[in-house]
Design goal:
The chain is globular. The longest helix is centred in the N-terminal third of the chain and has 23 residues. The protein folds into 2 domains: 62 residues; 65 residues, no CATH class. It is mainly α. Strands 1-2 form a two-stranded antiparallel sheet. The chain is 48% helix and 8% strand. A hairpin with a 2-residue loop joins strand 1 and strand 2.
């Protein structure tokens, strides 16, 4: 990886953390940006760049469908990283660290979830809503 590519990767990671922080705050973009001294144009530019990079990294198998007002529920494929332990997670009934309510959906994320899982969930939800 060249220096320019490494710098861009670091920027994208920082921007993704910024978008995640705004999302997790539950605030509107306008309110969050005002409180964090980030111009809304900057926020949306960074969000667009993150999404474009995510589309590049998903490979040629991605299918983008237009969403209509009366569209049926959609499912997004989430990949688990090789480092994420699967054993026992099906039986885990502990309290989730975070519950995200979107429409009539509740997404529960436990402490064991890695950053990649959380990023994929946020990406998938933001594509649907």
């Amino acid at each position: 990886m060249e220096i320019a590519e490494a710098r861009q990767a670091v920027k994208l990671r920082e921007w993704a953390e910024m978008v995640q922080a705004r999302w997790m705050s539950g605030q509107t973009v306008k309110t969050w940006c005002e409180e964090n001294n980030v111009a809304q144009k900057t926020y949306y530019y960074r969000l667009k760049r993150i999404r474009l990079e995510a589309l590049k990294s998903t490979g040629p198998n991605i299918q983008i469908l237009p969403l209509h007002e009366k569209s049926s529920p959609a499912f997004a494929e989430l990949s688990l990283s090789d480092n994420y332990p699967l054993e026992g997670n099906e039986k885990d009934t502990g309290t989730p660290a975070v519950t995200i309510n979107v429409g009539n959906m509740a997404i529960k994320i436990h402490n064991e979830a890695g950053a990649e899982i959380i990023e994929n969930v946020i990406r998938a939800v933001s594509e649907v809503y």
